[in-house]
Amino acid sequence: MPFSGPIVVGHDGSDFADQALRWALALAERAHLPVIIVRAWTMRTAPKPKTQEFGYVPPASDFADAVRERLEEATREILAEHPDVEVTLRVERGQPATVIVEASEGASLLVVGPRGLGGFKGLMLGSVSEHAVGNASCPVVVVRGDDDPAQAEPEA
């Protein structure tokens, strides 16, 4: 299959997302493709920015910066394993399923884990991964890794 665009990886901070990222980076290294790591966020899911104080709600850009910092921290060690791969981090405000499908436009491949941080024990495929498989603009790889998604507990 010819690849012309980047490999896009959805990353929500879960162990499954880390496994998907490792898989995508290994492929990108062999195929000489860039990787875009995408994290969706909402005001409900974003970490509190450093500028937030009692009585002051920072602008959305401060929340985006806090999400980016968290994504950088979460992926730093994994990215160090593949220093020759060109990687771009992208944080987008919106619902994860929508953001990940929009990010797939122009990509060679979309890579996701089977489940994210939420959900219910017993699910083999989470709602975001399922939505990506059915709606992405490119082929989708769901990386299961060594863990059984049906046995995983939702992370707090």
UniProtKB/TrEMBL annotation:
Entry-linked Gene3D superfamilies: HUPs (3.40.50.620)
Signal peptide bounds: none
Superkingdom to which the source organism belongs: Bacteria
Domain UspA: 6-144
Pfam families xref list: Usp (PF00582)
Family the UniProt entry places it in: Belongs to the universal stress protein A family.
UniProt-recorded name of the protein: UspA domain-containing protein
